[in-house]
Amino acid sequence: MPDDQQPDASNPSTHDPAGRPAHGAAGRAVPAAPVRTRPGTGVPDKPSLDGLESRWTSSWAQWGTYSFDRSRPRAEVFSIDTPPPTVSGSLHVGHVFSYTQTDAVARFQRMRGRTVFYPIGWDD
Fold first, then answer.
1. Which H, E and C letters describe 29-88, residue by residue?
2. Given this model, what pLDDT does residue 77 score?
3. Residue 17 near residue 113, CB atoms below 8 Å
4. Over the chain (124 residues), what is each successive 10-residue block's mean pLDDT?
């Protein structure tokens, strides 16, 4: 889909298999805010992540990106069970590595249109 075209609910080609608006290479659901760049470079003068998540939060909620639909057939569900870190050890960079891997897998499965059950947290 061209960058200047918005997804249209009446046009199924702008939606993923689950009926949500297309993302990434398949289409752009929300146009990016204009960014000032250095002439001829395409690199922003002052790259910043400030406000990026807050700009996308309402769209993610509207599309149900991080919601889990219990009514979906089992074949469309991808579940990740993350055990808590061991109680006898201290947190270290290996924990970050292992949770980054599961987060990447969860995101990949969401992009494939599956509903992902990915509870994270501990009961301490």
1. CCCCCCCCECCCCCCECCCCCCCHHHHHHHHHHHHCCCCCCCCCCHHHEEECCCCCCCCC
2. 92
3. yes
4. 49 55 50 62 77 88 88 91 71 81 91 88 54
How far is residue 87's CA from residue 62's CA, in Å, rounded to a whole number?
38
Can you tell me the distance from the alpha carbon of 121 to that of 123, in angstroms, rounded to the nearest whole number?
7
Spell out the domain ranges in the chain: 1-33+58-67, 69-124
Decide: helix, strand or coil at residue 21.
Answer: strand
At residue 44, what are phi and psi to the nearest 5 degrees? -60, 150
Residue 109: its pLDDT value, please?
94
CA distance 8 to 113: 18
pLDDT for 106: 92
| pLDDT for res 42 | 72
Q: What is the H or E stretch that residue 105 is in?
A: helix 93-111
